[in-house]
Amino acid sequence: MIHPHTELRLISPEIGLGPVATRFIPRGTIVWVLDKFDIVMSPEQVEGLARPYRAIAEKYAYVDPSGSSILCWDHARFMNHHCEPAVRGVTPHFQVTVRDVHPGEELTCEYAECNIVNLDCRCGSPRCRGRIRAEDLVEHAAAWQAEVQAAIGDSLAVPQPLWPFLEDPEAVRRILDGTTEATPMPGFLCTGTLALRESA
User: Fold this and answer.
1) What is the pLDDT of residues 61-73, one digit of tens each?
2) What is the spatial distance between Cα 97 and Cα 147, in angstroms, rounded to a whole number?
3) Distance CA 116, CA 169 (A)
4) What is the pTM of this model?
5) DSSP string spanning 28-39?
6) Exposed, middle or buried, 61 (CB in 10 Å: 0-12/13-18/19+)?
7) Which run of H or of E encompasses 145?
8) How confident is the model over 78-111, as pLDDT tens digits?
């Protein structure tokens, strides 16, 4: 489930649709939660889908650490890649903003963190890597983890409208208050559409 202060808008003809903030969303805000309406499919289930359904799963789902494809039910599935994203994941079950997001700004994520790799990037960032690769997750892990740690330091001081939808709120609270360290791992940080890329 994506934050209620977002809406789906056309980003550009090339990129397509993406979630955009409708109000100010401060750093440390939980902006996405894996919820009970999201569809979780094993690799075998995806492979067994009829071609039109499989095409949708391949375009809009992300792959979690267990290899399952997650198809978000709401407009979180349209989240686009950016090499300097507004959002990063903390566990496989929730994401936070790693900087303030202003009204009209797109919520973006890092596709290398959600097992969507070997894609050409068109994010337009001065720090654009040009290509999203599997190796990016290892090469940039320390910097990305530092962003997460800094952001979650603000999480308990900002409004959290998605709190009721967390599967284990007490476990999340322990991460946010520093009792338990957040340990990023491949495949949980994004819920992306592939609109920003071309296949290799």
Assistant:
1) 988 888 899 999 9
2) 9
3) 28
4) 0.86
5) T-EEEE--TTSE
6) buried
7) helix 141-152
8) 999 999 999 998 888 899 999 999 999 999 999 8
Question: End-to-end alpha-carbon separation of the chain, Å?
Answer: 30
Amino acid at 18: G
Please state, in angstroms and rounded to a whole number, the distance separating the CA atoms of residues 192 and 2. Answer: 12
Residue 66: C-alpha distances to residues 93, 125, 172, 188 (Å):
13, 31, 20, 10
CA dist., res. 186 & res. 115, Å (int): 7
On whether the CB atoms of residues 63 and 189 are closer than 8 A, the answer is: no
C-alpha separations of 97 from 17, 46, 106, 133, 183 in Å: 19, 30, 11, 23, 16
Task: Read off the pLDDT band of 134 (50, 70, 90).
Answer: confident
Nearest to 15 by CA among 98, 114, 95, 82: 82
Domains and CATH numbers, the chain: 6-176 (2.170.270.10)
User: Looking at residue 96, what is its pLDDT?
Assistant: 96
Q: Which letter does DSSP use for residue 48 in this model? A: T
Instruction: State which amino acid sits at residue 135.
Output: E
Tokens describing residue 104: 């009209």
